[in-house]
Amino acid sequence: MNNPIYHQWQQWESQVLEWLNRSDEDLTLPDTDPFDRVILTLLTVKYQIVYKDMDKETAIDKEKKQDECKSTVILSKIKTPDVITGKEDRQDKEKLLDDFTDRLLSPEQVSNENSTEWQGLEFVKRSERCLAHFVSQLISANTAYQEFIREPSMISPVTKINNRVYTKKNDGQMFLTIDMKSANFASLQQMNFIDAHMYPTWDAFLSTFVGSTSLFLQNKHLRMMCLGKLPAYNKLEAFWTHFTGTIYQTVLCPYLDELGLDVRCIALEGDEVVFHLDASIEEDKVRELVENLQIRLANESPIIKFHVQAYRLRAFHWQNKHMCFARMFIGQDEAHFDLKCVPERRKNYNQAYADFRTFSGL
After folding, report:
1. Percent of the chain with pLDDT over 90
2. In a domain, 216, yes or no
3. Do 273 and 178 form a contact (C-beta atoms < 8 A)?
4. What would the pLDDT profile of 81-96 be if each residue is shown by its tens digit?
5. Which of 19, 149, 262, 324 could serve as 232's disulfide partner, Cβ 3.0–4.6 Å?
6. What is the pTM of this model?
7. Is the dihedral of CA 212, 213, 214, 216 positive or negative?
8. DSSP characters for 104-118?
9. For the residues of 247-269, what is the DSSP string, one character each?
10. Boundaries of domain holding 343
11. Domain count, the chain
12. Is residue 31 part of a domain?
């Protein structure tokens, strides 16, 4: 990436690496500006070092305007117990990580998540804010992105189709779904705002700035938070909607017509297309369709990747009162499914999943 934000990152990373390689003393960095501290926060995540004087800095921030604030930052290699754990309540820690990862974690999972990089509740909150701000600034600083947001939004070549898939009347029906993988990140790659060869995945991109920290990398919610902060995000959404519509017109429909299969598009919106498959189509044919369509899409769209799946829908009343749906995927070696319409999904999904498995005898 050839822009001022990335160069600023490289300069700070070089300085931190030089310190890590030559000294065990704390590194004192006076007169850092707010964006310097954003970068330094991420570097402490990447290299698992300690960022000190956060409370002092916060007090200064409150007294001065953000763009005028200068502060001294101290980096340390020594993780003292009070820095790592403090007197923080475990429930507060669990709630924060639940919000941060957007999935409900057990106490054991919380312990595993923060075993190496934990520096306290305030630090995790700060890291989350800093990462979203940094990624947004890094990408939007590209000249090409600035030109993109000045252009009119793209318009899909096809009309949106939005029939309900998850309804009781579709119980037992077969569907084919084609959805874009990591639509926001893939769109940035397709338009060359992010180099797809250097950073083939979101994890590869993010690890440049946070290292191998699983708390950050294995976190779909964080990707949505970071890229959702981009200016004119609605134009990015319009791009992937246009791209999906074009794929529908030029690849999906011609291929399905060529096969002569009895299919009907029931949903075409955003980054996903859903077809209803006639019950007369044998499952072996469906498996073959999924495999061939996946290959064709990979050839037609090497940067933006699509995930092709076929499933049979199963409706069930969870706890005798919630109408939920299981997508029973076709073509898997073992019974494989996921659930839709689970109430309070983050809290209840695992239990609903286990209950459906028992109920279905899987």
Report:
1. 64
2. no
3. yes
4. 444 455 556 666 666 6
5. 149
6. 0.86
7. negative
8. ---HHHHHHHTTTT-
9. HIIIIIHHHHHHHT--EEEEEEE
10. 161-195+232-360
11. 2
12. yes
